[in-house]
Amino acid sequence: MDLSAYWAVPIQKTADWLSEKALGHPNAQLSGRLAEAAGFRQGQLLPQALIATGTSRQIEDAWQVLLDPYGLKLEGQVEKDAFSYLHDTCIQEGQIVPLADFGQLLPELKNSGYLLGVVTSDDEVTTMDALEAMGIAGYFDAVETADQLSHAKPDPEGAMRFASRFGLQPGEMAYVGDSPGDMQFARNAGMHGILLRQEDGQPLPPGTETAVHSLMDLPDVLQEL
To answer: Which helix (H) or strand (E) holds 44?
Structure first.
């Protein structure tokens, strides 16, 4: 799924909400800094953005640093309201843009006998909303989200839970991701790391065993592992 399309508006609107909560009135400068802390500058996804590589807790911590001078604490009801607002805005305004023809790819993988799972730094609410909106939730045998785990990626806990549940060894598993953090996760868990590569010319991050330009290449790539 295209993270920029899904998160850009919800993050900006939540940044606007927080800045007004902190100051009592809208403030474009503070709102922009809050959005940038989560990974967006003027609506553009930044490299290594927390929204892509971090967890909700890490984003909250980054926001708290910016809100401390104004005396606003992201705790209790304020924390609940902020993240409820973010989740509601994701559901209402996040654009679901698949990165592949999942209606073809996932049945092909399932028919080939692969177990499919998701391990994500996102939380369960927004993860399941996105999977269900794309009509693909039922293809996955397990979904591990950051709020279900004691340790988020790149800690291998999510992969180890999947391996234990299905009686697998990490070396029998592959993880597909689009960031250096994803490949670090694969390496930490002992899985095959498959990088969805957006551009040529950049060094492959550690943990990458192979790279693809399209997820539709996965059936052929998996056969070669």
So the answer is: strand 44-45
